[in-house]
Specification:
The complex is a heterodimer of chains A (213) and B (260).
Chain A (H helix, E strand, L loop, with lengths): L2 H37 L4 H16 L2 H16 L6 H26 L3 H9 L4 H31 L11 H10 L4 H27 L5
Chain B lengths: L3 E10 L2 E11 L4 E6 L5 H8 L7 E6 L2 E5 L8 H7 L3 E4 L11 H13 L5 H22 L15 H13 L5 E5 L7 H16 L4 E4 L3 H7 L2 E6 L2 E6 L1 H6 L4 H11 L1
Parallel strand pairs in B: 3-8, 3-9, 6-7, 7-8
Antiparallel strand pairs in B: 1-2, 1-4, 4-5, 9-10
Helix pairs in contact in B: 3-4, 3-5, 4-5, 5-6
The chains are: A mainly alpha (213), B alpha/beta (260).
The structure holds adenosine-5'-triphosphate and magnesium ion.
Chain lengths: 213, 260
């Protein structure tokens, strides 16, 4: 088969990886913040519940979680199953939101108490303190670890094939089955280019936040 | 009438009684120094006055009006406290400037946020913001920082940071400005510049409470001195009395450690 046709097919299937990536970030980033506030809640039962949930999600393989979301609702409760892509994306969002939540929590807790107290003494409300004082400092601190997670997510998107989502590696494997091996190796290039672009964007963001310490 | 009256203020941390019933008052324009050994409760007292800690008992009066009463829940709500704490300003030992804002922005931030709740804010926005900006520049100039307006905290020395922090506190127009060991996080060669601006504030009759270990400074600057030990006011009086002729044994012991 023609080289350009195969590359075109791979590119098409890589769109699925990109979709999973973007939707996971779009929902996982805010959900992670909510989970972070839950785990920092002063209402102990809530914070324990959230912490146990985060422990389970971070303590088990993402691949398993994808399978569970796809099969378990149907098997256990006889629900109509999620679609393959839906199931994968739901598992990804939950999984990454938990990782993000820990990063948010670390970032928020690393802000010295004196920053809040200085704001309080100056008569600011809690909301003003969060948006005007802490938020940007938190963003600065979490940008590097968030960057790592985001780059991991790019590569993790290929796990969606475990429930037969035709992402790029699954597509390439179809060619290997027919005896054509190079497409599989060439998928690396797609990931490398994507991660390369992300690295540049993240680097820019870090430099934009370099004006303060 | 004294600008500040503190009556039987008590604070516990769990089983630890840190303030065991503090009484004192402060006249307008007075500079009061609080001295005492480590752990005697000086910081806790300032934090109570600034509502960073909630006292377990006691009352705080400003110009005769009760602004805090541990027995009266209506003085304890968060929005009440936010209004009433503005009677006080606090300068922290370790500055706590906001790192993402320049010196000028650090001073402007809180007054601007407060101005938003003014009734005439929308109709008069430009004039109000202009006034806040001018006032901030005036205060920073008074602190000798005219050429540092656009500097971020990490570009300033400790002494400069502390002077920005003083301007920031003054910008809210507090009745009483509190300092918690304003120079103890500074290199010795930088303490002078900060003490100098505090002295200039005293010369302008700014009402101040200064917790300090700089005995010489407290002696020269203050109108009155309180010696605290173990959560109690052990002795108070003019600097001459407390430093020159202490009556209490504990005061003598404490001061003798500074004299040799
Ligand atoms: N948040 C807290 N929780 C528990 N104990 C506290 C807390 N803050 C202060 N303490 C205790 O209260 C006592 C008084 O502390 P405080 O900081 O008021 O002393 P200080 O007079 O300011 O001492 P220093 O001169 O060292 O600054 C100390 O024994 C301290 O350990
Ligand atoms: Mg102290």
């Amino acid at each position: 088969m023609q080289f350009s046709v195969i590359i075109g097919r791979l590119l098409e299937s890589f769109v699925l990886n990109c979709e999973i990536f973007i939707i996971t970030l779009a929902f996982g980033l805010p959900l992670g913040l909510i989970i972070a506030f839950g785990s920092m809640s002063r209402f102990k039962p809530l914070s324990w519940l959230v912490k146990i949930f985060v422990w389970i999600i971070r303590g088990t393989p993402l691949m398993l979680q994808v399978i569970v979301v796809f099969y378990v609702p149907g098997l256990l409760w006889g629900w109509r199953s999620f679609g393959r892509l839906e199931a994968a994306i739901i598992a990804f969002i939950i999984n990454y939101a938990c990782y993000f939540s820990e990063i948010y929590r670390g970032g928020i807790e690393s802000i010295p108490r004196g920053q809040y107290e200085a704001g309080q003494v100056l008569g600011m409300t809690k909301t003003q303190i969060f948006f005007k004082i802490t938020l940007l400092q938190v963003i600065k601190r979490i940008t590097p670890p968030m960057g790592n997670e985001v780059i991991t997510l790019v590569k993790d998107t290929s796990l969606a094939r475990i429930i037969a989502n035709k992402e790029i590696i699954m597509m390439a494997q179809e060619y290997s089955a027919k005896g054509l091996i190079w497409p599989l190796f060439s998928t690396a290039i797609f990931f490398l280019v994507f991660v390369g672009v992300l690295t540049i964007i993240l680097g820019r963001l870090e430099r934009r936040l370099d004006f303060f310490r | 009438m004294p600008v500040l009256e503190v009556i039987n203020l008590q604070k516990n941390f769990g089983n630890l009684e840190v303030l065991k019933g503090i009484d004192f008052s402060l006249e307008k324009g007075e500079a009061l120094s609080i001295i005492g050994s480590s752990g005697s409760g000086k910081t806790t007292l300032l934090r109570c006055l600034n509502f960073l800690e909630r006292p377990d008992a006691g009352r705080i009066l400003i110009n005769g009006e009760t602004i805090f009463d541990a027995d009266d829940p209506s003085t304890l709500s968060e929005s009440e406290i936010r209004k009433k704490r503005l009677h006080f300003g606090l300068v922290f030992q370790d500055f706590n400037l906001f790192p993402q804002y320049t010196a000028l922005q650090n001073v402007i931030l809180a007054p601007e946020l407060l101005a938003r709740s003014r009734a005439d804010y929308n109709s008069n926005k430009k004039a109000i913001l202009n006034e806040i900006d001018n006032e901030a520049r005036r205060l920073l100039a008074q602190m000798g920082l005219t050429d540092k307006l656009g500097y971020y905290p990490h570009q300033l020395s400790g002494g400069q940071k502390q002077r920005v922090a003083i301007a920031r506190a003054l910008a809210m127009g507090p009745d009483i400005l509190c300092f918690d060991e304003p120079t103890s996080a500074l290199d010795p060669e930088l303490t002078g510049e900060v003490l100098k601006v505090i002295r200039s504030l005293a010369d302008k009759n700014t009402t101040m409470i200064i917790v300090t270990h700089e005995m010489q400074f407290a002696r020269e600057l203050s109108n009155r001195v309180i010696f605290m030990d173990d959560g109690l006011v052990v002795e108070q009086g003019s600097p001459k009395e407390v430093f020159g002729n202490p009556k209490e044994e504990r005061t003598k012991q404490f001061l003798s450690r500074y004299n040799n």
